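Worked example (supplementary).
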Amino acid sequence: MDPRLPTAEDEHFMRAAIRLGEKAALIDGTGGPFGCVIVKDGKIIAEGSNHVVSENDPTWHGEMEAIRAAAKKLGTFDLSGCTLYTTGEPCPMCAGAIFWARIDRVVYASTIADALCYGQFDDQPIYQDLAKPIAERRTPAVQCLREEMLDLWRRYEAKPDRIRY
Amino acid sequence: MDPRLPTAEDEHFMRAAIRLGEKAALIDGTGGPFGCVIVKDGKIIAEGSNHVVSENDPTWHGEMEAIRAAAKKLGTFDLSGCTLYTTGEPCPMCAGAIFWARIDRVVYASTIADALCYGQFDDQPIYQDLAKPIAERRTPAVQCLREEMLDLWRRYEAKPDRIRY
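After joint prediction of all chains, the assembly is encoded as:
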């Protein structure tokens, strides 16, 4: 089977994510129509939805909430073996979190272009910006005290019991 | 004054961030040597440090904690007017969060190359991966039920009282 084609199971779990997005945007009014479920071994282990508006939290995307909940539930920062279902193609923040969490597979419904068209959510310039070196991005960035930080890095490197992750 | 050069104030706040990173990595052992402070009007309004290991949370980077805390403290998801100090050049997840939070300026100490050299933290492949369309990234991605999601998008677009963000 082509892993890039959705299955009937994918549709089932995506409908659960869409219901969460609908609740967030149209019923509770917590944020945009973004819902997310994380599935392992055929079962939903965590859910999330957008709460940027209600919680005044710019990082509270559905994917972020679901990843944190899944990691807490499984007791590990390694979500290998999990599939993440999200109503919208992930933004760079969530795509980065998906990488760090070692999620196996992502299923999404609408595209970044759809989110711009219907919701004025514009992720594309962020993707373009992050493809540049930090000194060329829109947010001005300054390097400071690298040598003092390298001293800390060397002490961290020499720590015998540090946990690699 | 060139806004791309660090000031004495920048060094002061970066030392606070380095102390948080040192505490996280060498004293409490919560994660890597990553600390962050967010400054508004010359004062630290929020702090964060890496807790990936101790909290089993792959998203618990210092920047994420500090951004969430700053937004909570100010009661808004818009952190315009704030400068973020971080011990390491931000990863794509945190750089995305910095964008969404509308942080004005970023000050960092060590580079992505330093983090790889001393800590085996490898952000560069994530940056390279996120510069590609979702279908070409390492994590397999599948689109599913776009039409059902577009129905929700249209109802969201038609909602008279939605809060734009």
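Two points are worth noting when inspecting this output. Chain B touches chain A through 99 residues (CB under 8 Å). Strands of chain B lie at 35-40, 43-49, 82-88, 105-110, 141-143.
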